[in-house]
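Researcher: Let's do a round of design. I'm pasting the structure tokens now; please hold your answer until I've finished.
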């Protein structure tokens, strides 16, 4: 019985040819190992968990910040779509000591970047764990992330004494 089943499978496989199936443009992409999105942007999950950052204050470039003081945040972690990567953020400090004009970017090991813009501090809220949270807009990139879009939730805890930040980033990225 087993031998009969094996013989039937062999005949079935021998009788099949790829001409029986219609091959669209996706076939060549699949053969080459690429994903087929037919030129459309695809929405994907975007995460960077357990991000550890340091921050410091320094004089801002001439004319960049009204108060002349800027802050820099730098951290490293593992991010979906980027792998081991870094995050850099620069912002001005206003007269009340609050951040304004917040811009930043993620950098992959190969140098590709994802840029983001953070809204004003009026849009920050505190979650049930005591973390500050804000929704951030992804605003372009370089390399394979050129014309990228999306947004993510950044929930973070600041240690003012040690000038460090712990953060979790979750959201979507479209490219």
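Researcher: That's everything. Go ahead.
Model: Designed sequence:
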């Amino acid at each position: 019985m087993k031998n009969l089943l094996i013989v039937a499978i062999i005949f079935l496989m021998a009788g099949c040819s790829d001409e029986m199936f219609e091959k669209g443009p996706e076939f060549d992409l699949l053969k080459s190992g690429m994903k087929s999105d037919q030129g459309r942007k695809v929405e994907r999950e975007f995460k960077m968990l357990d991000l550890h950052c340091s921050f410091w204050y320094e004089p801002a470039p001439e004319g960049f910040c009204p108060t002349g003081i800027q802050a820099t945040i730098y951290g490293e972690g593992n991010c979906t779509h980027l792998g081991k990567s870094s995050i850099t953020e620069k912002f001005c400090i206003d007269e009340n000591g609050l951040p304004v004009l917040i811009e930043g970017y993620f950098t992959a090991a190969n140098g590709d970047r994802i840029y983001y813009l953070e809204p004003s501090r009026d849009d920050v809220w505190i979650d049930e764990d005591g973390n500050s949270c804000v929704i951030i807009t992804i605003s372009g990139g370089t390399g394979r992330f050129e014309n990228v879009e999306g947004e993510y939730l950044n929930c973070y805890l600041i240690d003012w004494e040690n000038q460090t930040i712990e953060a979790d980033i979750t959201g979507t990225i479209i490219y």
